Amino acid sequence: MTIDYIVIAIYLSVILGVGWLGWFKAKTREDYSVAGRQLGPVLFTSTMAATILGGASTIGTIGLGYRYGISGLWLPASLGFGIIGLSLFMVSPLIRLKLYTVTQILALRYRPSVKLVGSIVMMIYDLMVAVTSTIAIGNVLSTLLKISMVEAIWGGGAVVVAYAVLGGMWSLARTDILQFTLKTLGLLFVLMPLSVIHAGGWRHMAAVLPAHYFSLTAIGLPTITTYFLIYSLGILIGQDIWQRAFTARSGSVAKWGGLTAGIYCILWGVMGGVIGMSARVYLPALANPESAFVVAIETVLPVGIKGVVIAAALAALMSTASACMMATSTIAIYDVYTAIAGKEKCSIIIDRLSTLIVGIIMLLIASLIGNVVAALTVAYNLLVGALLIPLIGAVFWKRASSTGAIIAILLGGITVISFIINDGLLSNSPIYYGLGVNLIAFMAGSLLRPDRVFKPPVSRL
């Protein structure tokens, strides 16, 4: 294992080194928050794909593959379809506005109070997604290094916080292309084929696994529907995704880069399902399906290669953790701080301090929560149930009003939280009822209390 530890240490050192280079590149607040809006096709596609695919999409999907078979692919696939929809239908009218946060769209259409409430909801969402990937980092490192979960979270998470604070979006974009390359090679082209071989090949898997492991619907149609409602719709309005979209140097780069990243997400889902179901053959009695990923690495891979694949896994997790941590920090400064303090102008020093504070909060929460899919589901339930309809309405519906938006955000969020408490973290009901209440409240409030000063839909600006 010494060689594997050395490989992982080299990877972490390189990531920190790239983050340090970002310190010199990020000269302005625009550099720090959106990489100067200068990313070309290769760098943009890499950073977008790396952002989307984190802890739940890697460890969680392999765990789902272990439990249900190939149908575990639907979690990342739903994320992929979401980014495809965003790229094809929404990116063009919005990227030209040169925003920093998604919730700034609310300010273009509604009263300032709507933007403030929406920003708080968006911060909670992005922080929870960052937490899921940080928990996953802890899962990998604690199993590998035989240390406590808390020590692993703070050790691995500290690297994420460090390079994000140093160079902001420039550091994230440059580390993402390295992480994207590493995780593609390590997981798609090394772990997946070797795991299938270790399971005796596809024919042997077909002979020993139950037939439903090869069905695309074994996970259940209600669960697949929920994934699309939560994750596909959530991608359309997530700050972590839009902040990446804002880094593109043109609308065409954002459109085609996002489309490519979406297709990659679907392939990633297939990879996770295959690794999980093959692991079920040679690891038939795991108590915790989410441990299948790390245990498969330890079982299948030889020394040296194991270190590379673990580094690839960390790459997948760190890219999402840093993206969502940065998204939370950006909203905190550009939307919440400026609204409360009444200051429109801040310095890059304040931006870095905000990122550091958010990073510490992320690590504290990750130390208290253990299930990556549960944490991600809570985050997306709240985001979609509270913000989806008001944001879409701001872009496309001419009768959308501030009253309708604020009522929809509050009632949708309360509904989601109530059903999570009553029915459980992983139940389907929060998103169904939350989204329904969100839609009804928004339409009723907008029609009954229209704004006195008409503002056109954002798509017309």
TrEMBL record:
Which topology term describes how it sits in the membrane?
Answer: Multi-pass membrane protein
Q: Where in the cell is it found?
A: Membrane
Report which residue ranges the record marks as coiled coil. none
Tell me which UniProt keywords the record has, alphabetically: Cell membrane, Ion transport, Membrane, Sodium, Sodium transport, Symport, Transmembrane, Transmembrane helix, Transport
Recorded hits in Pfam families, A to Z, give: SSF (PF00474)
State the superkingdom: Bacteria
Task: Write down the Gene3D superfamilies for this protein, in alphabetical order.
Answer: Sodium/glucose cotransporter (1.20.1730.10)
Residues annotated as transmembrane: 6-23, 43-66, 72-95, 116-141, 153-173, 180-201, 213-237, 258-283, 303-333, 353-373, 379-397, 404-425, 431-448
Q: Which family does it belong to?
A: Belongs to the sodium:solute symporter (SSF) (TC 2.A.21) family.
The protein here is known as: Sodium:solute symporter
